[in-house]
Amino acid sequence: MSATEPTVQIVDDDRSFLVATSRLLRASGFAVKTFSSAADFLAQHDTDAPGCVLADLQMPGMSGLDLQSAIVRSRNPLPILFLTGHGDIPSSVRAMRGGAVDFLEKRAPKEKLLDAVRRALARDAHEREERARRRELRARFDALSERELEVLSHVVQGRLNKQIAADLGIHERTVKLHRTAITTKLGVQSVAELTRLTLEAGIFEASETTFPKGQ
Amino acid sequence: MRFPLGKVREDRANQERWLGRLFSLTTVGLLILAWASVKAGGQAPAPMPSHRVLVLYSDERLLPANVIVDEAIHATFTADTGDHIELYSEFLDVVRFPGEEQRQRQRDFFREKYRDRPPDLVIAVGGGAFAFLMERRAESFGGVPIVYCSAAGDPHPEHLSDTRIADVPVPDTAGRTLEMMLRLHPDARHVAIVSGTGPRDRQYADVFREELTTFGNRVAFTWLTDLSMEELRGQLSHLPDHTVVLYLTMFQDAAGETFTPRQALDAFAPASRAPIYGHYETYVGHGIVGGSTVPFEEIGRKAAQLGIRILAGEDAQAVARSESYQTVPMFDGRQLRRWKISEQQLPPGSIVRFKEATYWEQYHRIIITSLSLCLLEALLIVALLAQLRRRRLAEASVRENEQRMSLAVDAANFGIWIRDLARNEIWASDKWRELFGFAPSERLELDAILQRLHPDDREALQGVLAKALAGEGRYETEFRVMLPNGGIRWISSHGRVELDANGQPVRIRGASRDVTADKQAELDTQILRQQVAHVGRISMMGQLATALAHEINQPLGAILRNAEAAELFMQETSPDLDEIRAIVADIRQDDQRAGAVIDRMRGLLKRQTLDSRPLDVGELVGDVRALVRADAAARHVKLDVYVPGDLPPVRGDRVHLQQVLLNLVLNGMDAVNGTGGEEQRVSITALLDGAQAVEIAVSDTGTGIPADKLAHVFDPFFTTKPNGMGMGLPISRTIIEAHGGRFWAENNNSGGATFRFTLPIAQEAAAK
Prior knowledge:
The complex is a heterodimer.
Chain A: E1 7-11, H1 15-27, E2 31-35, H2 38-44, E3 51-56, H3 64-72, E4 80-84, H4 89-97, E5 102-105, H5 110-142, H6 146-155, H7 161-168, H8 172-186, H9 191-201
Parallel strand pairs in A: 1-2, 1-3, 3-4, 4-5
Helix pairs in contact in A: 5-9, 6-8, 7-8
Chain B: H1 2-22, H2 27-43, E1 51-57, H3 64-79, E2 85-91, H4 100-113, E3 121-125, H5 127-135, E4 146-149, E5 165-167, H6 173-184, E6 190-194, H7 199-212, E7 220-224, H8 229-237, E8 243-247, H9 261-268, E9 276-278, E10 290-293, H10 296-311, H11 316-322, E11 328-332, H12 333-338, E12 351-353, H13 357-411, E13 414-420, E14 425-428, H14 430-436, H15 446-452, H16 455-472, E15 474-482, E16 488-499, E17 505-514, H17 516-571, H18 577-608, E18 612-615, H19 617-634, E19 638-642, E20 650-653, H20 654-673, E21 681-689, E22 693-700, H21 728-738, E23 743-747, E24 753-760, H22 763-766
Parallel strand pairs in B: 1-2, 1-3, 3-4, 4-5, 6-7, 6-8, 8-9, 11-12, 19-21
Antiparallel strand pairs in B: 10-11, 13-14, 13-17, 15-16, 16-17, 18-20, 21-22, 22-24, 23-24
Helix pairs in contact in B: 1-2, 3-10, 17-18, 17-19, 18-21, 19-20, 20-21
C-alpha cells in the first residue's frame, strides 16, 4: 500500500517525443516519469507505484507488446496506453487483447491522449483498490485454521451444523465453535456476509469441487 | 530273217509259174496245180546262204568280253550289204570244261554238227578257241580260213605260217597300262600284280611277266597270285602306302573257284586300299581306275570285217597285216575322283566313263538353264533381300522416328489429329481422344468436337480455323474443353493446313496438348504477379511510405505535443519562459528532423539505389505490361501499348522505372475502374522527345483530375483515393528527376488523365 502520487510512465525510444509528451502531461497536471526503453522501465520503475504506462508500440529491442506481457505478469500490473507512428490493425488487436487501455496515434489530438491517460489512471486506481481489498480479505482468511477452513467450505454451501458434523465426523457443538471462531476472525455478522466474503476472496474457487458433497 | 526273205522270193517265182500255166492248163489241172503251187510254196528247201561263219569262243557265252564281241561281229556282218552270211556261235567254255578230252568231244560234236553245214570261215575268239582249232587243224574245220580274234594276253603261237589264218595281235595293253599307272602315280614304289591261278590266268601272267622285264627296277613288283579270293582281299587291304595294283585276269582262284575276271574284280576291288588298274575295257566300272585298253567292240568289229574280206576272196594274211589296233586309255570317273586324279593328268584321247561330269555333258543345257535360273533366282532373292533389308531399315528408321515422335508426343502430352477436308473425316490419336473425352472408337465429327468446347471459346476457335484455311496456313490457339465428366480442360492446339498441287487445302494436321496445369500455373503466376505487384507497390512505395510515415510521425508527434504543452504552459499566470524556449527549440529541431527524413529518402533514391544502364523502352513497357496483364483482365481494363520499334534505348534503373510505370498504370486502372464507363482503357505510349529524350505517357479514360487538384498531385500525402497514401507520385517524380527526366500530369481533351515523364536517351545511342 503505497501512498505515492499516480505517475504516468512514458516509454519511448524517441527522445524528442518522450520529452515533448512528458511536458504536455506535466503541463496537464500529471506526474510523469520517462524511460527511453522497455528494459529501462522494467529495471527501474517502482512496481507498487500507481499510475499507467504510455509506451511506443514500435521500439527497437523490446517492443511495446513485449513490454505489455511483462507488465501483465507483475504483482501490480499497470494499465498500458500504446502510441504508434502509424498504427496497424494486427498489432492493435494484439495490444487490446493483452489488456491495453487504449491505442493511440502519436499525432492523436491532445484531448484524446489526456482522456486516455485519465482513464488509465482511474482504472489503475480502481484495480489497485480491488487488489488491496482482496489482499486484506485473504489475510483475514489466512488466520483461519485448516479445520476452520474445512467447516467454512461446508457452511458456504449452505449445509447445517448437524450435517457438517456428520460429514467431518465431529460433534455438532464443535462445529458451532468453529463457526464462531470463523465469524470472529473474519469479522462478519451473518452467514450471507460470510458467503459473500468467501466468494470475494476467491479462496475456494479453484478447489471447490474437491469437497465432498454430503453422505 | 533268212526264212521270210526266201519265202518272198519263192512266192514271186510261183506267181510267174502260175501265170504261165494259167493259160495252158485245164481247169482241173489248174486246181491241182494251184494246190500244188501252194504246197510247193510251203515245203520249198531253204536256199543256200552265200557263206557260213562259225564264231568259236573260248569261254562261256556270258563272259562280258564275249557279249561285246558277239554283238560287234553280228552287227558288222548284218550291216554288210554284200552276201548273205549265216552265223553260228559255239562256246568252248575252257575254264569250266578244261582238258583235252573235253576238247576232243567238242571237236567230234562240231564235226557231226556242221557236217551238212560246213562254215566257210571260223572266227576264233580268244586264245583257247584258237588253240583248239590249231591243235587238230585238219579235224577242226580243216582248210577253212580262221580269223584269230585275240584279246590282250592271248598267246600268238609261232606256227602262223598258215596263210588262211588272219591274226591281228592286240598291242601290249597290260604294259601300257603299267606305264600309265606309274605316270599317274609318280610316288608309287610298289606295284602289286593280281592274277588268278587258272591255266589261262597263268598263261596271261606269263606273257605279261616277259613284258615286265622292260620296267627294270623302277618299282618293286609283287605278284598277288596263287591266292584264294579271301586271301587276296586280305592282302589288298593291307597293302603298303605308295602301292598301285595291276589286275590281269582271274578266271580261278587258289581255292579252285572260277570266275569271270570281272566277277573276281567285283569281289576283291572293294577290299583294296590301293588304286587298281586293268587293261580290259570290261573292267572299267568294276573297281579299276582305268587302263590302256583295246575296246572289245573294236576287236569284234575288226574280226568281222576281216572275215568279210576273206570271204570276199582276199588273202587272210595280207588282210591281217593291213590292220592294227589303237589302244584307248579308258578310266572310271568315280575312281579318278576317289584317288584324286585329275583328268588333266590323263593321257590325250582318254575316255572317262562314269564320270559325274557326264551329267554336265548330258544335261549341260538343262544345267546351264537351271543354273541360270538359279542364279537369276538367287539374284532376285538377293535383290529382294536387299530391298527387304532396305525396307526393313527404312521401316526401322520410320519406326524409330515414329517411336521418337511418339515418345516426344507422349512426353509432351500431345494428342495428334488429322482432318481430311475432302472426305470430311477426322482421325485422332488415342491421346487426343482422351484429351477431348472421346471414346477410342467413337466417330469424330467437327461439330461434335466444337460442341465439346467451352461456349465462350467455340466461336473463337471457328474463327481461328477459318482464318487458317483462308490462307494463314497455320494456327495456334488455346481453348477450354468441357469434359463429359463435367471437368474443364485447357487445350493448346497447333495446326497446319496442307495444300494440294493447286494450292487448295486438303487436310489439317495438328497437335493438341493439355495445358490445364500450365494454365493453372499461369493463373498462379498471375496471382503471384498481382501479389508481387501489390507487394512491390507496398514494398517500394508503401513500405517506403510506411517507414516514412513512422519516421516523420515521430518528429511531427513531438512537435505537436510540444506545441500543446507550450500552450498549456502559456496559460499559466506566470509562464515558465525557459520551459517554453526549450519547447520551441525542440520544435525547430523536430522540424529539421522531419525534413531530414525526406531528404534522406530522396538521397537514397538519387545516389545509392540507382543502377543506371541503357534500357530498351519496349522491354521496359513490356515488363510492366506483363506484370499488370492479369490485373487488367481481372478488372476488365483494356491495356494498350504503343511503342515504336526504332526507339533508342534510354538510360535508367530498370527496377525503379518499372515501379514508376507500374504505379502509373495501376493508378490509371484505379482511375478508370471507378467510372463504369463504356471504355475502360489504359494506354502506354512511348515516343521520341527531341534528340535527347524519350517521352513515356500513361493515359487513362477515367474522370481525369479536377483542375484545382492538378497542381497538387505530386505533393506528398496528396491523395484522392480512400486508402491512398499520397506517396506514389511524389516518389515517382523523385525517381524520374533522379534520372534527369521530367514528370508532369495533364487532363486529356477526351477525358481521363495522362501522366508523362521523359527519360534521357542513353549516351551510347545518342552518339550514333
